[in-house]
């Protein structure tokens, strides 16, 4: 199993003033030639389909990969200087290039932007993403008996 972590630093201005989807820089996993995958995070500061008002959905996106299916366990951690008040979301899903998975309830914007709550640190928030990869076994389609 391989591990990768990435921290995305956003400013409060990014979250308040952006009317577009925010995208992190790409980050890459290279497991000695077995798996090459490039990832990025996507955040919707003004909400997204089905998200409760005030929440910013965040997704881990697979930009490219040389292996499919690729099962990934991932954690999003919204760090808090008043730890252990960190907010964590975790899941395991199968990824392919161009697709992503995530959560709609990690970032409650009013709570995160209130300096008293500890998420805003010098005008910035820190979203840590941790991934672990498991290569799935090749699946075979069921064989159906033929009529004779």
TrEMBL record:
Coiled coil: none annotated. Transmembrane segments: none annotated. Residues 3-131 form the MATH domain. This is MATH domain-containing protein. InterPro entries: MATH/TRAF_dom, TRAF-like.
